[in-house]
Amino acid sequence: MLLTYKYRLITPRRTRRRLEALLEDQRLLYNAALEERIDCYRKTRKFIMTG
Question: What pLDDT score was predicted for residue 46?
């Protein structure tokens, strides 16, 4: 069963920097949201429902 695909992107440096910045922003956002969910669970013992 195939679960992932890997694509090699060949991009100009400027585009690559912008993509890396976008991925970093998304990583930070995801980690902040995860931290918030963990903190809420520790305080209330209830899960935050995401949609």
Answer: 86
pLDDT at position 51 is 63
The tokens describing 28, both together, are 């930070």
Residue 35 within a domain: yes
Question: Is 1 part of any domain?
Answer: no
Question: For residue range 1-51, what is the model confidence (pLDDT) as tens digits?
Answer: 778 888 888 899 999 999 999 999 999 999 999 999 999 999 998 887 766
How many angstroms separate the CA atoms of 26 and 51, rounded?
18
Q: Which domain holds residue 51?
A: 13-51
- State how many domains the chain has: 1
Following DSSP, what letter does each residue of 4-51 receive, concatenated?
Answer: ---------HHHHHHHHHHHHHHHHHHHHHHHHHHHHHHHHS-PPP--
